[in-house]
UniProtKB/TrEMBL annotation:
InterPro entries: ACT-like_dom_sf, ACT_dom, ASB_dom_sf, D-isomer_2_OHA_DH_cat_dom, D-isomer_DH_CS, D-isomer_DH_CS1, D-isomer_DH_NAD-bd, NAD(P)-bd_dom_sf. This is D-3-phosphoglycerate dehydrogenase. GO terms for biological process: L-serine biosynthetic process. Pfam families: 2-Hacid_dh, 2-Hacid_dh_C, ACT, PGDH_inter. It catalyses: (2R)-3-phosphoglycerate + NAD(+) = 3-phosphooxypyruvate + NADH + H(+); (R)-2-hydroxyglutarate + NAD(+) = 2-oxoglutarate + NADH + H(+). It comes from Cyclonatronum proteinivorum. The keyword Chloroplast does not apply. Catalyzes the reversible oxidation of 3-phospho-D-glycerate to 3-phosphonooxypyruvate, the first step of the phosphorylated L-serine biosynthesis pathway. Also catalyzes the reversible oxidation of 2-hydroxyglutarate to 2-oxoglutarate. PROSITE patterns: ACT, D_2_HYDROXYACID_DH_1, D_2_HYDROXYACID_DH_2.
Length: 530
């Protein structure tokens, strides 16, 4: 059996993806269509899976894929992937945001032209032996107003193309600046103005709570009578149940759909699809040779890069993971993770608030460093694996409140990470720093200076600061043949308390730790293994 990582390439992905993966030492297995049972069998040992829109990557499927690291979408929309479930499981989800832009924009324009010139109906009529020239009198788009909702890659592309046809283009997109709109020749308007002024409305947004039912009976009074509608984005942006009535009462004169809230559309959609003023295509926006090759090439490279932990382009649920390959960050990522491992063992599970204070330049990357800290902090959590993708999500699920503070550099250390542990019994603050390239140390616990390397087996205890303490505690190690590798002690004369960190050559058994903890004056003792 090959020990190369295996990636399932589903939904008729262009075979070029398998060739690219093979060149990167990855087994890409191409399957046009799998039954649920076959998919379950194949996904068991897969490190990656690439889909288009047909395969539903849901919680149930992810649960059957213990080795899965990456889900790749050869396309834009990820609505067939349960991002939350993937994030929870630490599985990276990535898409290819621009590989099919041109094809989809061209398809939307094709639909617009099909509508205004009755092309599909006219073709069908002629093929049926009729010569209906009068019936298929059309209209020009020149001089008419096109309303584009969603001025991202595809929406802007449609606008540009239809401007070339002489249309006026108005658009709505909360994230589009006036300056960029002006450059494109689009007039930015609010939705009410877009509804009121558009002869044709085309939508190019994702399906979200804000875009669902963007056009339904409710908007009818706002629309230009006989408006033409195009949806080449996602089913559900138009209220499908209302569209038939809106066509029948003349609110909408022509409708073009490429996408449906259920794909393939269910039987209750038949009346709408068969309506003479409806042009419909079976989700063909991205179905061109060029787009399919582009997305297959892009996703294969992206997936191979991610599996090699080289780059995370196109990642959707791994904001910080994209940064994690930054060479300068590596020592701080390691420090953060080791500090996380240290803190959870020091403070236990009752912590409900963690404040992470970044001193110096490392604060620029506070977000990814906190994710790394949390990955270390939650490393013992049973929902393996915990990584930069799901660590914050898991912390949230455990009700742990996370705060970040960024300070400019001050004091002894120019770069310092300090963790304030809310609700911990004995140890409420831990500071760590990087020495050289790869020497990670705790440099303070509570308000005391202490220096211990974040590696191997440690014992940390708090004690009354009185003569003979160290000898009494360390003798228990000597009696059990455990060598001390290093030792650091911080004292607070004001309250006569000290904290001691001992690095030992091998782990101490529970009975030895109990003996140490029972020494008179030891108030709290905990082993730490890193
Ligand atoms: N029919 C097909 O085969 C294809 C469909 N698509 C779909 O087309 C849509 C657009 O894709 P792209 O342009 O690549 O994405 P994009 O991310 O570049 O653009 C989406 C735009 O929608 C805007 N937007 C989000 N919420 C909005 C709202 N409430 N009102 C107005 N604008 C809003 C965003 O600001 C963004 O500019 C997506 O839904 C995608 O899944 C994409 C490729 C192929
Ligand atoms: O893979 C396809 O053909 C669907 C494309 C699509 O809808 C998308 O990329 O969002």
């Amino acid at each position: 059996m090959s020990n190369k990582p295996k990636v399932l390439l589903l939904d008729n992905i262009d075979p070029v993806s398998a060739e690219i993966l093979a060149g990167r030492g990855i087994n890409g297995e191409l399957y046009a269509k799998l039954t649920p049972a076959e998919l379950e069998a194949h996904i068991k040992d897969a490190a990656g899976i690439v889909v288009r829109s047909a395969t539903q990557v849901d919680e149930a499927l992810l649960a059957k894929a213990p080795k899965l690291k990456v889900v790749g979408r050869a396309g834009v929309g990820v609505d067939n992937i349960d991002i939350q479930a993937a994030t929870r499981r630490g599985v990276l989800v990535m898409n290819t945001p621009d590989g099919n832009t041109i094809s989809t924009a061209e398809h939307a324009c094709g639909l617009i032209l099909s509508l205004v010139r009755n092309i599909p109906n006219a073709v069908e009529s002629l093929k049926a032996g009729r010569w209906d020239r009068k019936k298929y009198l059309g209209t020009e788009v020149h001089g008419k107003t096109l309303g584009v909702v969603g001025l991202g890659k595809i929406g802007s592309g449609v606008a540009q193309r239809m401007l070339a046809f002489g249309m006026h283009v108005v658009g709505f997109d909360p994230y589009m600046t006036n300056e960029r709109a002006r450059e494109l020749g689009i007039k930015l308007v609010d939705m009410d103005e877009l509804y009121a002024s558009s002869d044709i409305i085309t939508v190019h947004t994702p399906l979200t709570d804000k875009t669902r039912n963007l056009i339904s009976k409710e908007q009818a009074p706002k629309l230009k009578k006989g408006v033409k509608l195009v949806n080449c984005a996602r089913g559900g942006i138009f209220n499908e149940a209302d569209l038939l009535d809106m066509l029948n009462d003349g609110t909408v004169s022509e409708l073009a759909l490429d996408v449906y809230s259920t794909e393939p559309p269910t039987d209750d959609m038949r009346a709408l699809l068969e309506h003479p003023h409806v042009v419909c295509t079976p989700h063909l926006g991205a179905s061109t040779e060029e787009a399919q090759e582009k997305v297959a090439v892009q996703i294969a490279h992206q997936l191979a890069d991610a599996l090699e932990l080289k780059d995370f382009k196109g990642s959707i649920n791994g904001k910080s993971i994209a940064l994690s390959t930054n060479a300068e960050l590596q020592p701080y990522l390691k420090l953060a993770e080791q500090l996380g491992r240290f803190c959870i063992q020091l403070a236990g599970w009752n912590v409900k608030e963690l404040t992470i204070e970044y001193t110096g330049k490392c604060g620029t990357h506070a977000e990814v460093l906190t994710d790394a800290f949390l990955a270390g902090y939650l490393h013992q959590v049973d929902e393996a694996p915990v990584n930069l993708i799901n660590s914050r999500y898991l912390a949230d699920g455990k009700g742990i409140k996370i705060r970040e503070i960024k300070e400019s550099s001050s004091g002894t250390f120019s770069e310092l990470m300090t963790v304030h542990i809310g609700g911990a019994e004995a140890f409420s603050r831990v500071s760590g720093a990087v020495f050289g390239d790869s020497d990670y140390r705790v440099v303070g616990i509570n308000s005391l200076q202490i220096e211990v390397q974040l590696q191997g087996n440690l014992i940390i205890y708090k004690n009354v600061d009185k003569p003979g303490m160290l000898a009494a505690v360390s003798s228990k190690l000597a009696e059990n043949d455990i060598n001390i590798a290093s030792l650091s002690l911080g004292r607070n004369p004001a309250n006569m308390r000290a904290i001691t960190a001992i690095a030992i050559d091998k782990p101490a058994e529970k009975t030895i730790l109990e003996e140490m903890a029972s020494v008179d004056g030891v108030e709290y003792l905990t082993p730490i293994s890193l």
